[in-house]
Amino acid sequence: MQSTSGQKGAGQNNEKPCSDEDVVRELCMANGLSYDDLAEEGPSVTSLEVILSGFPQMVGLSFFPRLRQLQIVGQGIKRIEGLESCPLLQELWVVECKLTKISGLHHCPGLKKLYLYDNKISEIKNLKLLVSMEVLWLNNNYISQIQGLETLQNLQELNLANNNIQKIGDSLVNNVNLHTFNLSGNKISSFKELTCLTCLSQLRDLALSDFTTTPNPVCRLCNYATHVMYHLPLLLFLDTYDVSSTQINEVAESTVMKKMMFYNMRARTARRNLTETVLHLLKKKNASLESPKESIRSLNYTLKNLERSLCKKSFDDAYSHTTEDLSTKGDSCDPSAEQILRKIEVLQQRLAIWTRRLHEIESWHQHHLGQATQMMEDTVHFMSTELHSFGNIRLEEGSATDPWFTSCRDLLLSRFSLADYMSHGITGIRINRVVRIHNSGLRLRFKDKLHTLLAREDSVTLAQNYKRLLEHLFHVSDSHQKDEDVLSIVEEGFKSAKEYKALGKEAAVPLSNSLIVSEQPRIEYLLRHAEQACSKRRTDTIPFISGRMIVSKVFLGQSVPIREGELVHRRTYPRACSVYRSVHTKHRDGVYTTIPKGRQWFVFDNDLVLPEYMICFEYLTGDGHHLDSVCLSKGSEQRTSLDDCVDVLDPPTYDTSPDKEAVDMEPTLDPQPKLFNLNTEVLLNVSGASVLSDITVLNLHNNNLSSLKEISSLTALRHLTLSFNELTSLSDIAHMPSLEILDASFNQLVSLESLQGLKELKHLDVSWNKLTNVSKDSTVLQIHTPALQILETQHNPWKKPEEVRMTILSFVTTLTKLDNTLVTEEEVADAVRKTTRTIINQEIIIVCSHTKNEHPRSLSLMSTTQLLSDLIPPPSDLSQDLQPDWASKITSLNLDNQKICQMSHLQALVNLRWASFNNNYICEVEGLDCCSSLEELSLNNNNIGTFNGLSNLQSLNKLSMDGNQLSSLDASVLDQLHNLIFLSVENNLITSLDGVHKCHALMELYAGNNQISVSRDIYYLKVLESLIILDLFGNPLSENFKNYRIYVVFHLPSLKALDGRAVDPAEYENAKAMFGGRLTPDLVAEKLGHSNYASITYLTLHSCSIRSVDLSPTDVFFNLHSINLDHNNLTCFSGLIHLPNVKVLCLNYNRVESILPRQKTFLTNRQMLHNKVHSSGYGQQSLSKGSRPLAPAIILEPLMSSLEVLHLSYNGISNMANLELSRLTNLKTLFLQGNEISQVEGLEGLHQLRELVLDRNRIRALYENSFISQNVLLELHLTENRIRELNHLYPLIELRKLYLAMNKLQDISELDKLEVLPSLTELSVVGNPVARNSLHRPAVMRSLSQLQVLDGMTVTMEERTRAEITDATQCEECCGVSGLETNLPGLMTYMPVKGMSMTGLQSLIHGHDMLPSNKDEPQVQYTSKYKKSTEKNPSNLHAEVTSRQSRKAKNNSIAPCPLPHGK
Description:
Blueprint: H1 2-12, H2 20-30, H3 38-41, E1 47-50, E2 69-73, E3 91-95, E4 113-115, E5 135-137, E6 157-159, E7 180-182, H4 191-194, E8 205-207, H5 224-231, E9 237-238, E10 241-242, H6 246-312, H7 326-329, H8 335-388, E11 393-397, H9 403-414, E12 426-439, H10 440-454, H11 460-465, E13 470-475, H12 482-492, H13 497-502, E14 509-512, H14 515-532, E15 546-555, E16 559-561, E17 578-586, E18 592-603, E19 609-621, H15 657-663, H16 680-687, E20 697-699, E21 719-721, E22 741-743, E23 763-765, H17 774-784, E24 790-792, H18 804-811, E25 817-818, E26 821-822, H19 825-835, H20 842-847, E27 849-850, H21 864-871, E28 892-894, E29 914-916, E30 936-938, E31 958-960, H22 971-974, E32 982-984, E33 1004-1006, E34 1029-1031, H23 1036-1040, H24 1044-1051, E35 1057-1058, E36 1061-1062, H25 1065-1075, E37 1078-1079, H26 1081-1088, E38 1098-1100, E39 1108-1109, E40 1122-1124, E41 1144-1146, H27 1165-1172, E42 1205-1207, H28 1216-1219, E43 1229-1231, E44 1251-1253, E45 1275-1277, E46 1297-1299, H29 1309-1312, E47 1322-1324, H30 1336-1343, E48 1349-1350, E49 1353-1354, H31 1357-1368, ...
Parallel strand pairs: 1-2, 2-3, 3-4, 4-5, 5-6, 6-7, 7-8, 8-9, 16-17, 20-21, 21-22, 22-23, 23-24, 24-25, 28-29, 29-30, 30-31, 31-32, 32-33, 33-34, 34-35, 37-39, 38-40, 40-41, 41-42, 42-43, 43-44, 44-45, 45-46, 46-47, 47-48
Antiparallel strand pairs: 9-10, 11-12, 12-19, 13-15, 14-18, 15-19, 17-18, 25-26, 27-28, 35-36, 48-49
Helix pairs in contact: 5-6, 6-8, 8-15, 17-18, 18-19, 24-25, 30-31
């Protein structure tokens, strides 16, 4: 409609009415009214529209007093007028006209809808009286700023599309009912501006980009939609898209939460690094103070010796503390005294020099401390900026290895000329930091603007050579707004020419290609400021010693020199992109010099200036302030991070030879005898008095005194010197009524608690002692020294040295001089005010609280209480009457830094959600039992020792208790905090993580700088499935435990960040490789649920993927007797060999190759083929009839002397020799079934072996060395092998049981070879070919007279008799067997398989179920049921045995290991 109306309106403009009357006639005609009857019809008209007719001006509206709607489209109207007669107007359309401003609407207070789009309006104004306004369309105009809408609180729809708006600001704070807002087609480029929309709680439809307009630059940034959805969670439509789905909001919330967690972790890490840096700087400072302190101590020692000498010469006692002119004393002193006075003067001069050096070192320390602090603050600000911009602004810290860092350094060096700074005493420059700026929004602006310039028709030549016009130039901000301006440039870019002009500067961006040109305004400002404040004490001799600059990429375009006398303005140079001029610098002597190639540039378009780097630098001087500094050169190493700040404070060396000369000056005093104890005679002798009551001055310097028991009797004593002794207490001088001056310096005092009753004491020197607690000592002085005026406390190891002066002055208000510095009344009053303890009362709660019920939607690193305190100012008027339920409305309470000792008067805050009590003196958490809605609680830097008082906070999700006195994590309390996702307990005394496992929802845990030292504490965290951020930095565990980081990563695979650093995927792989499958004491404790290793006797860990064992120290497992590690991945068990008392070891179903790890060997192709195809026999032809060649005998050290039973079944073992089993010298039982062994060997050292199980292997033959040492072997299992011959069994003279079932014995003669086994009582050969011959039993019985059980069946007397008869009638063996069987009554017919019981068969195959050895005991050999079944379904013996054995192997494949399932 708009475009059509515009065309028609344009056509009508060619026929303009000649008069107002004609205009009115056209108006009537367009709306179907009669001009002649207008007077009668006009008052009843409520709606008019002017679209097709000409309407150059608003006339004739007086005829329509009841007009409610007026539409004017596509006319030539330049201003709104004539509405004074339409007070009822509610809707006005003046669109596609020529309006240049908004006016004439104050006559329509009831106006609700106003459409002024497609005009030439440049400013929003004159709308203040339209308080009923609901709809306002000002799109397609020239508006550059949102303003003038403060009173439109009923505004629901606002359309400002297609204007020139760059910022939103706080212009819409009062428009709380705004529902629909269209800002598309403008120039919003920063997320910071979008956060200003969070005040619009009713906003549901927001458009920053639609199909009909150009999107705002901000829409092209990463995470744009996520940012908007997080800050405006109630939004239903964004850029015409439906975003009402709860899933969209959940994704936005989750993304923001993770980002905030990550940046909060980085910020905490930066602050922690600063703490570490401060400690390191303090160590360096103390190291650099050693030499001055030692010299001061030596000089003071000599000085006080001289003062004591003067005292003995009866000089005035004040003489030792005065600096009177020697000329006034010279006439009254003998030569010796005069020499002493001159030496004292020289010593005092040396002391003054050393005192200045102490101040220099302190200034030096403060300078570097300030640098580190500033660097940390910048880092945190950078992180906050990155967070606010969702990563679209990123600040990258540079290092000397980065090429761009080197480029910046070289650029600065090339633009630095030492001659420009010689007049200021500058000797060089050093780069402290280089930060690369990645600002996506500014880079897009730069590229878009440059593309626009190059795309112009008149820019063909420019487009071809534009790269030559790109330059890197410097910008240094004014000193009074240095930090703010630099950070603003990083975030938002440079100001526009209009903004610079408004500040009274040239209307362009000021830049330069020379450092001195950029720095000159700042240097002049600071020098001028320093001259004005010359009386103020400064640490820097040069006020501009440190600086920072922005290095920008600049498109200079067509550039011309500035003409003399002309203003720098685009109107003056319309065709130029930039202008420049050569710059002169003014030196201190007032002479101007021209800088070679030095130019100052002014760029008119700030979009063509892209900030890319920020450089922090420091000028070097020749004074002691930078004794560690050297002039920057291209090859020098540079500091690039906060940690590097600690490397610059190497202790300087000082020449102490003048001190030695001063000490050795004449006169040199002879050593005085030491007074190790005091009595009346000694006191009188030292003082020179005749009676004790006359002693007023007493000098006991340098006497190694540790007590002063007799001195309390000196009631008249006024001046006492006790320097250079061994005093630890001043209890002996308590209650001395006349004492005025006390010098107790250079002693061992640890406290002033014993200093009592000194009511007249005016001067006290306790410097150079060991005092630490300034609060307690100040309290003593306040009570017991009411007249004290001068106090010296320097060089004591105070716990908080920065608070010493303020604390002392707050307690001892009578002081006029403290530590050689005068005290003013204002300073005392300020100290008292700052240290006065606060009691929580109604007034302080009201001042420090807020009632906002919603969490602020802000991407901030601050806590909620801090954020609300910054966003919402506290109430200014507390005198107004409070409602009875005022306390229940409070949701936030911030009582940081209030000097609170006790948490009280909090019971009424039942709806409190966020509370902070940081930096107070609280010792116990109390008063929060009624605050069940509390979600965030911060108690940092107090004196709290337990978690008591937190149990009722069921809604708590964030708890911070850094810097307290916590020693443990109370599981009973933490178990009640079901919603806790954030816990911070840094800088406490916690020794274990026990208890934290109760916080099942925990996502972030900060426990750095505690005393956690045991690695198994990590196991308490394994149950925390949501834990993604962990910080244990500064604990003994992280510092002393080898491979700590990957150890933690291995046990907590869901961890995303550890100790302030993201976990790299490679670390996961390294952790798996190093710790995967390790059996350690920690794993044992985790599996068993306790760490009392001494109580463990049985250990069973099935199927735990264990690859290696490390149970050191093994002594703690001294009661461990049995270990079962079946079904794991062990290749050796070297980690178990040092366990002292293990008797049974089960390692079935592993991959054991040897006891100790074997070195890898390279195999030939033939050997590899043989290993792959074991049954082929390839390569073994030469060994088929003999044993494997024996290697030279090597005697190895025995291992595991207590081990008696070893299970190595199903390990894939092919070579017994490689196992080195001979080292297990006390082994009695060995299970090796289910392997791939082809040769029995390597048993030479097993002399105690009683039972050997080799079932289900690949053994073909027995060799000479197979059982060479098994003289006491009782039981041998060789079932299911491939044995054809029974050779070399003769060493087994004690063998009782031999199981050879399921082998390949064919010839019955092989069974005759068993004659060498005289003790054999049980034999099984079932399943062999030889067992098919019915005569194998008689043959065996004839050979083995002691045999009791054969093939699982007891050998009876009848069988043995029959065997003997068979032997006697060998000639009738083939034909007379049947007759013999029938003619011998009483003899039972024997069938080898039919009728064999199940029990007998199992015993036959697996010799574990032993039958009784008593041959006279009857045995059950048949069951009628089994007999019938076998007769009806006869089967092959081999198939029957095989099927039975396979079923049994399936159910119970190995002998059960005699171990319980753990203990």
